[in-house]
Design a protein that fits this description.
Distance between the termini: 43 Å
Largest sheet: 7 strands, mixed
Low-confidence stretches: 1-12, 14-22
Shape: globular
CATH superfamily: Vaccinia Virus protein VP39
Number of strands: 7
Order of helices and strands: HHHEHEHHEEHEHHEE
Radius of gyration: 16 Å
Number of domains: 1
Structural class: alpha/beta
Length: 207
């Protein structure tokens, strides 16, 4: 149990050898869910995108493909994730379309009012206070900017709740809890979707 707990705990902040193993698995393991989430972004054409908690960088790359005229800033507070995401998106970084940097969502230093779209895939489970962190996201979005959250857990599924007990600092949220925190942080026009056959959820809000 000890090694298993050490490994799955790397989902919070990957570091060291186990962290590298975890990040390598993130890109493929969550791809279908991430693509389902991105399918909800069919009415916007963002120029500046921030991908928060970018992990291995796969979703930043998918956003670059979905929006070929956009610029993506991918951030994570794990140096292992920053390194992996930088390698994954090396060509886009070289061409000036992508930047990967180390940031903490609870204290963002990104320019205020810069981004049209912020995304967060499989990451808010570990954010230290939803309202406070959502307020940080709102700060860097333009007026009318979109914030999309995509989670593999709807906050009630048995598997995720088991991991919640194993991984320190993990909290699985329901759609209602996420929506309430978004509104408390100043977001409006919040809408959500629940995948039919899995506990996947997508929540989208506008500033």
């Amino acid at each position: 149990m000890g090694l298993f707990k050490d490994y799955v705990s790397q989902t919070r902040k990957p570091k060291g050898f186990l962290g590298k193993m975890m990040v390598n698995g993130m890109n493929g393991g969550h791809a279908r869910m991430a693509d389902w989430g991105m399918s909800h972004l069919n009415t916007i054409t963002p120029e500046e995108i921030v991908e928060i908690g970018c992990g291995g960088g796969r979703n930043a790359g998918a956003l670059l493909k979905k929006y070929p005229f956009s610029h993506v800033t991918a951030i994570d507070y794990s140096d292992v994730s920053v390194s992996k995401a930088s390698a994954y998106n090396a060509d886009a970084i070289k061409s000036g379309r992508c930047e990967v940097r180390q940031e903490d969502v609870s204290a963002l230093t990104l320019p205020e009012g810069k981004f049209d779209l912020a995304t967060a895939f499989e990451t808010i489970y570990f954010w230290p206070g939803l309202k406070e962190c959502f307020s940080q996201v709102a700060k860097i979005l333009k007026p009318g900017g979109v914030f999309m959250i995509v989670n593999e857990s709807d906050g009630t599924d048995e598997t995720s709740l088991k991991f919640e007990k194993i991984i320190d600092g993990m909290k699985c949220y329901t759609i209602v809890e996420i929506e309430e925190a978004l509104k408390a942080a100043g977001f409006s026009r919040v809408k959500s979707d629940h995948y039919k056959r899995k506990p996947w959820i997508t929540v989208i809000a506008r500033k």
